[in-house]
Each structure stands twice: as structure tokens, then as C-alpha cells.
Amino acid sequence: MVRPFLRSLLLVCLSAVAIAAADGRRPLNHDDYDSWRTIGAPVIARDGQWLAYSFMPLEGDGDVIARSLIRSTEFRVPVGALPPPPLTASEENPERPAPRREVTIAITSDSRFLIATAFPAQAETLQAKRDKKKPEEMPKDGLVIVDLSNGTVTRIASVKSFQVPAKGGGWVAYLKEPPPETKDEAPKPEPTTAAAAAETGSEKKSPADPEKQKKRKDQKYGSDLVLRQLYAPTEKAERVFPNVLDYSFARDGRMLVFTVASRTETENGVYAVTPGDSATPIALVSGPGRYVKFTWDREQTQAVFASDRAEPEAKAPRFALYHWKRGTAAATEIVPVGTAGLPEGYAVSGDAAAAFSFDGTKIHVPAAPFPKEPDARLAELLDQDKVSLDLWHWRDDYIQPMQKVRADQERKRTYLGVFDLASHRYVQLADPALANVVLNDDATRGFGRDDRAYRRRETYDRAYHDLYLVDAATGQRQLVYRELGEKSGERWSHTGRWLAFFHEKQWHVIDAQSGTIRPLSANIPFALYDELVDVPEPAGSCGTAGWTRDGESLLIYDRYDVWQVFPDGRPARNLTRGFGRANRIQLRVQNTEASEPGDDKRGIDASRPLILRGESEVTRSSGFFRTSFAANVAPEQLLWRDQNVRYLGRALEADRVILSGSRFDLYPDLLATNTSFTAPAKVTDGGAQLAPFLWGSTELLTYRNADGVELPAALFKPANFDPNKKYPLIVYLYERLSQVVHTFTPPLPGTVVNPPFYTSNGYLILMPDIAYTVGYPGQSALKCVLPAIDGLVRRGFVDENAIGIQGHSWGGYQIAYMVTQTNRFRAAEAGAVVGNMTSAYSGIRWGSGRPRQYQYEQAQSRIGRSLQDAPLLYLENSPVFFAHRVTTPLLLLHNDQDDAVPWYQGIEFFLALRRHDKEAYLFNYNNEFHGLRRRADQKDFARRMSQFFDHFLKGAPRPEWMDRGVPYLERDEEKLRFRDSN
């Protein structure tokens, strides 16, 4: 007999099918993910006449599109398929994957040509994989050049990278992929130097020195650099320079500088060539050795680079710094090994780039200890004789996993010094005692952070440091503040006199001349810290827009408004006149000033209008406002929409601005307007992809949690929503999510529910904000989620017998806890759960290597005390101890290479459920991370999760894996059966 709630759900589904058939739209399915296209990398021409962007699917071949903003002309150029998302960790956050490679686009400064990278076509790459091609034999990236005057497309194969000058018209430089090595030497391109040209004809070369070849086994060698004149006939368009490793086009287009790394080491060096001049490139410096980290100053009148050419025969050669003035014939060695002022045993680093002060008079020099020669005995050891051992010492600053994660960073660590170009004097500023020094614009003063006394505390506490002022002329240090937290946000004024920082809920300023400290914001009557933060550690600031260009004031934010504060003691000014707070609109400075690439204008120009982006906390509508530093009235509204409106960029030489505007049901197409944001016009049509599909809509709700606190919640409603019908509901939670109500989410597979997929298929999705009480994170979630559901149920369109819940990581923990406390949910999915806080407390976040103790005492897990001080809180908040209470069928996802939550936490909880005969399914995608990264795994889990919810919330048949599991001996065959049947 069909149960009543299943009968009502069946009627809802049949009704949805009838509506879909009537208007021609259909629900999204899992096969729709791959073809969905996203707009990326928008570029606007200098004169504002052309817009270019990529339009790429998640899987399959995509396009670069160039659209005229003054005519109806549009060119669409196929550029192959995006490479798969990387599995490697991000350098910025080792617990996140590195970003996926995207198409790179440029428009020449005369708006005549579009240049873009291109990837191999998907079919080509797949065939190469089926043919088991070696990595070096796989299809390579390429380049497309589009003549915007007529749409002619030129394709160039096997290109690693390209550059066009910011100014200088129709030139492009691109670096080719090295050809596969063959026994027969390929014909040589144009020689780099006159000496090399003389040598080429005779081919009289000395045999390679075996010892030198061994020494250089890690040496990177260059490939062909092509300089192409885009207007010239093809046969005269290009010059080729061999063995180039790196290159830099001057912004004015009148100079191309490149470094050569050749197997014939006499050809190595740094060379400069003038586009359009057929003369042999000028050698700034050449000879055996490596040449790395070429860097221009801001005006591009001079440059620096590092080279180890002085020690070409050394097994661990040391680098020196070279300086070149543009227009001169040769570079000069300015910081050689043994320079006065360099600490003994130190030299210039080849792993980090030097930089110029803002005015170009001084050079920031990265110094490092001499490279160590590897112990030759290590290479001679047999595997059976090697000892693999780590020692965890109680006095170590960082535990072994943290040391391991940071090992490469530590090997390449550099310590800042300053070289004065006028006096030729070098001063070392940083060292292991004060490893991080940040200089002001003119490199006369710096501040440094010393964290050594607090490193061991990072196991269970946040990071701290002592703050020093550093005299760049002498290297002398002055301690100005002890034990600042990691959110102190120090920043120099552009005159170099003032140093602002945030501490104990206020902004402060240090006078670098006297070393005195004074409050900057003490008289502001509103909180300048994030009032919504409810973790045990102190909240950080609401942020800052930075210093004004004159260096005499700092713009800071409260929750809603913008304040101007003065280090000389003048009273603070509310630049937005309280308009943000009065209307509950968060106002933030939006920089729309035209600025040349690389010309880093300092600070906010107080003589110009101040453009603000605003977003309503009440409705999440957004837009732009204008005011001025002298205004005594509220900001003028320029644009306001019930959308998520974002500024994306502007033309450098025209009053043309590009925006995007989106909602849950509105694709973020690009909009063209002006700097007054007048009448934005849609100039792309990515939203046409929604037309075939049932989609849905959103609504922002408010509710009160069990403690009476009013909170917002985002409700995602099915397509063709009818308030008189009953719908299945899935609650998705993390912390505060209501702000995403106007965020467009494309159909994506992954570790969490995809709102458009589920609303398209007849589900309600509720995302309630959660307010926490420290010490009781599980109960806090329960006190918010259940009242939010109750409030929604009272509206009459929720089927109370078909309520599910889903979340990952912190969301997964909260769900695991809640299902031990309530039977409100018909089904639940929880990913990367912490099942047992007592064992997770001293676990390791393997991505960063950091112990998890700090997470409970100071951060997201919100216990606020140590396990030893509050064991009962850890027990009370641990789902594993209450697993016997669970009545909700539970789907778990926890992968064996989880780099944030130890995967044994999922095992502990699963085994506790299994012990008590609770319906539970644990998915472990082998060698996967905290979140699924492999595309096939993402699609597989998205299908299984939807089957799970469809069964329990819609009455769909149980899938085979729920009925009989997946026996280990059948695991591979089952994946094929599952893929082919869904």
C-alpha cells in the first residue's frame, strides 16, 4: 500500500512533468553538467570598443568570443577544452586544490588584434590518452590571433605563454613548447648572439663535460621565443630566438628582454631586442650560468635580475644581483657574493625576485644562506640501507607535519635587504630572528614581525607576533608592540610616516618618526570589528579601503559605513553620513580609476569622486553610489538592482565599464555601462542556457532561533512554484549562507547539493543562518535549524514527511550531531564529519600539517577550552557517543586522503552507527581529498546522493548500491554498471 506522503509526492512529480511538457522546459539531469558554459576572463579594449571573454564548458570544447561594443559584430573562435582541475594543493592554501587553468586573453593596445591561449580539443586529448602517449607526446596548448578588423584567425601550435605590450600596437611575443628530444639535431633558429652566429656555421663545439652535465641535471632549458609583428606579411612577421626560458615585454612595446638557458652554456644570458629592429639582440650580460627573476621598476626605465655566472663550475653556485639601466649596453653587478652588509654565509637568492622601491631609488634584495651541496653519499645508498625516520621533539617550534608541508617554502626562504642605487650601500634588514620585513614606499623604514616566541602556541591557539620598526638605513630595530594577533593588518601610509594596525577591536597608528602609538578610531561610536563573528578568537576588523594618496588619512569600515580617520588627531569623519547604517546597506569603496598595467597608483585620490558598492543586508539587493570627501549629504545612488551586481573592469582610455549582475535564476551576463553606471546594457547571452530547463527562484526569509535571535535564511523554490502544493525539502547548512540568495550557481556535480539541480527537480532548498554559543556548537545548530524548518512548514507548502538535510565538513559535523538529537529528518547526508571531538582534538589537518587543537579552542569548532579543561563539552558535542539514538537513514562521505578532517572520524561514526544497526552508508573515494577533486568522482557521488534523497523524500526505488552494497571484488564492475545505468 502506498503511504500518504508518497502518494502526495507522486502527484507533485506528475504535476511537474505536465507543466514541463506544457511550456517545453524540462528538469536538469546529471548529463547536463558537462556542457554548461561559464563566462570567464573578460577583457575590455583600451578604447572601449571591444569586449573579449572565454565561454567554456566544464567538459568539452569552448570558445573565445570578441564582441564589438559599438557595432553588432561578434567573432567566436574555438579554443579547445579546459584542462582537468588539478589534484595538487594550492600554494596559498595547502588544504585547497590549485586553481584550474583558464584561457588567457589580451587585446592589443590599438584594438586591432585579440590574442588568446588555446587548449587541445577534447577528442584529441582523449585519443592520445587511449594511445598511451607519453606526457611529452601529449597534445600541447596553442595560440589564436584574431584580426578584429575582419575576423581572420591565425592559429599557432605548441605555445607555452604569450605577452603583448600594454602600449605599442601590433606586437606579440610567445614562447614555444620545447620539441621532443631526438637523436638528430633539428635545424637551428636565429642565433641569439653574433658569437653564436659565427659558431653555427662550423658547428665546432667541445664535447659536453660529464661532471658539468651532472651538476646541471636540474637545470631548466629554454625553448624558442617568437617575436611577431601582427601587421606584417607572414613570411616577414616573425623573429625567433632559441633557448629562451623567460621574457618580458616593456609596457611601451619598444623593448623585449629575454633570458637564455641553453645546453651550450656560452649562449646563456639576458638579452634585449627592439621590435622592428633586425639587429642582433644586445647582451646585457652573458656566459655560462643561470639568469633568473628579471624585474622592471615601476617606470620601466631600469631592471634587475639574478645570476650565478660568477661561479659556473660550482656544484652549488651562488647568485649575485645585476642592475640594468634601459638604454645602456650592459648590466652591472651590484650585489655580488661578499658584498659589504650581507651576513656571512649569505648571498642573493635565485628563488625570489628583487623589487624596486616605489620611486625606483632602492632595491629590495632577497638574501638567503648559501645553497648547500647535497651529501654525495645519499645517492649511493641502496633503498634497503636507508632509514626513514621523523623525530617529533617537544621543543620544536612546529611539529613534523607542519615542517614537512613548509619544507619547500623554508628551503626557498629569503631575508630582505636594501641596496641604495645612489650610495651603492647594502643593508640587511631581515634575518631568522625577524624573518618578515615590509618596507614603506621609499624604502626608508620597515616593519617586521617576530613570531618565534609564539610558534608552539599555534598548536592550540591563533598566530601571534611582536611588531618592530626597522630603520632601513642602519638596520636597527625598535620593538613597538608585543603579542599582536594574525588579523592585525599592518599597512604603511604612502608617505612612509604612519603605520596602521588593528588590535583589540580598534585601529591604531604608529608614528615611525618617534615610535609612539596612538588610537585612530577610539571616538567612533560603532563597532569596527566583524560583529557576526561567533568563534572564541577575537574578531578581525570590518576592513579598510586603504590610505589616501597624500598619506594623511586612512579609510576604514564599520559594519555599514566608511570612515576617514587621521593620525594627526583630527576627529574621524563619516564619509557616507550614516546612510549605510540607516538603511542596513554595507558600503565599500569601489576603485574605478583607470590605471595602466603595472603602474601601481598609491592610495585613494581624495580629489576624485568616491565610488561605493552597496549591498543590503535585508534584501541582498546591490548597486553603486557616489559621494566625495567634501560631501555633507548622503551618497548619491547610481545603480540599484535586486541582483548581485559586481564591477569587473573599465577601459583605460574611454568611459566604458563592464559589470555583471546575477540572481539565482539570472545568469551573470556581462553588462556595459559608463563610470556613472547609467543604463547598463547586456552584451553577452550566457543566460540563454537556462531556456530549456525548469530552474527555480529564491526568497530571503527571517526566523527566530530557539533563543529568540532573529536570523535570515535563503529559500530556493522549485520551478513553477505553487504555494498550494506540498514539496520535499532539503536543508543545506554551514554557518551563515543567506548572503548567497542572489548568487547564480551553475549546474555542477560535487560534494554538496547543487541548488538549481534540486529545484529543477521539484525540491525546496533551505539555507538558514546559524548563530553559535561558544561551547555548544551542536546545540546551536539544532536551535537554529529546527525553528527555521518550523517557520517554513507553517507556510503550508512543505511535506513534513519528506524533509532531508545535507552538509559537508563543518556542515557535515552539525548534521551528524543533529540526527542524534532529533528524528525530524527523513534522510541525511553528511560529508567529512567529525564524529568524535575527543579524538579529533589532537588530530592533524594534513593539508597544512597543523594540529586541530586550535580549531576547538579558538576557531570554527567553537568549544573555546582545551580537552583537559572541559572534557564534558567535547563529549556532549560528539555524535559518536549518541549514535544509538539515530533514527535517520544516513549517507556519509569521507575520503581516505582527506587533508582537513582525518578520515578515521567518518569511520568512528560509521562503526558506531553500524554497531547499533542503524541504516548508514559510508562512501570513500580512494585517494580523494576533503572535497572531491576528480571529475568522475564528483559526477558519481552527485548521482548517488540524488538517488538517496529521491528514494527517501520522493519515493523513488532504492538503487542497487543501497540494497546490496558494493562488494570489494565487484567494485570496478559496479562503477561501470552504475555509470551506464544512470
From TrEMBL:
Leader peptide range in chain numbering: 1-20
Region (Disordered): 81-100, 170-219
Stored InterPro entries: 6-blade_b-propeller_TolB-like, AB_hydrolase_fold, Peptidase_S9_cat, Serine_Prot_S9B/DPPIV
Domain (Peptidase S9 prolyl oligopeptidase catalytic): residue spans on this chain: 785-954
Swiss-Prot/TrEMBL keywords: Signal
Gene Ontology biological process terms, A to Z: proteolysis
Superkingdom assignment: Bacteria
Bias (Basic and acidic residues) ranges: 178-188, 201-212
Low complexity compositional bias, start-end: 191-200
Classification via SUPFAM superfamilies: alpha/beta-Hydrolases, DPP6 N-terminal domain-like
GO terms for MF: dipeptidyl-peptidase activity; serine-type peptidase activity
Name listed for the protein in its UniProt record: Peptidase S9 prolyl oligopeptidase active site domain protein
